């Protein structure tokens, strides 16, 4: 679990500015906090799971409650977003790491459909070759015309 200040400080360090000893300016920190909130709100609307106890930070020192596996994705993407604020340019390695981490979070957020029954696949779907395959869809039962009683009208 991280705080907003920690995420902003780590993102600034990835860009080569700011450290714990020499933090970034307060105005830049507030602008970065605003970008962090915008990014997290956007991720929440895309159903990205940031943790069971995740809360949007109200202030810079509040805990976010995110899972450990989402921490690096938050920091990398925040670094790309705050680079213009700090008058820096994010290098391609940082951008690709941020993109990959975001895609991993998106993939984990996808609701996977239930597996269809093996007998419900259409012909050519890869289960069996076409000439040897049985019919995959249930056909309506055919009634024997000799045993069917006509409807009385």
Walk me through the structure.
With 153 residues, the chain is mostly helical. It has a domain at 4-109: P22 tail accessory factor (Gp4) (Hypothetical protein yqbg). Helix content is 40%, strand content 0%. It is built from 4 helices and no strands. Helix 1 packs across helix 3, helix 2 crosses helix 3 and helix 3 crosses helix 4 (92-109). The longest helix is centred in the N-terminal third of the chain and has 20 residues, at 26-45. The model has no long low-confidence stretch (mean pLDDT 78).
Mind sketching the topology for me?
Blueprint: H1 4-14, H2 26-45, H3 71-82, H4 92-109
Helix pairs in contact: 1-3, 2-3, 3-4
Question: CATH-wise, what's the superfamily of the domain at 4-109?
Answer: P22 tail accessory factor (Gp4)
| Low-confidence runs | none
Main pleated sheet: none
User: What pattern of helices and strands is seen along the backbone?
Assistant: HHHH
Which geometry do the CA atoms define? elongated
Distance between the termini: 75 Å
CATH class assignment of the domain at 4-109: Mainly Alpha
Task: Determine the fraction of residues in helical runs and give it as a percent range.
Answer: 25-40%
CATH topology of the domain at 4-109: Hypothetical protein yqbg
SS strand fraction: under 5%
Q: How many strand elements?
A: 0
Structural class: mainly alpha
Radius of gyration: 28 Å
Instruction: Tell me the number of helical segments per DSSP (H or I, 4 or more residues long).
Output: 4
Mean pLDDT: 78
């Amino acid at each position: 679990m991280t705080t907003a200040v920690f995420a902003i400080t780590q993102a600034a360090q990835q860009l080569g500015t700011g450290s714990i000893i020499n933090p970034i300016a307060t105005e830049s920190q507030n602008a970065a906090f605003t970008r962090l909130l915008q990014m997290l709100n956007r991720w929440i609307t895309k159903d990205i799971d940031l943790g069971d106890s995740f809360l949007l930070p109200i202030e810079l020192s509040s805990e976010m409650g995110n899972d450990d596996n989402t921490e690096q994705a938050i920091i990398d993407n925040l670094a790309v977003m705050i680079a213009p604020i700090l008058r820096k340019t994010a290098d391609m390695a940082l951008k690709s790491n941020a993109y990959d981490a975001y895609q991993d979070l998106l993939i984990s957020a996808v609701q996977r459909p239930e597996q269809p029954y093996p007998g419900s696949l259409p012909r050519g779907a890869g289960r069996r070759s076409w000439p040897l395959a049985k019919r995959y869809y249930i056909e309506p039962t055919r009634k024997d015309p000799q045993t069917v009683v006509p409807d009385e009208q």
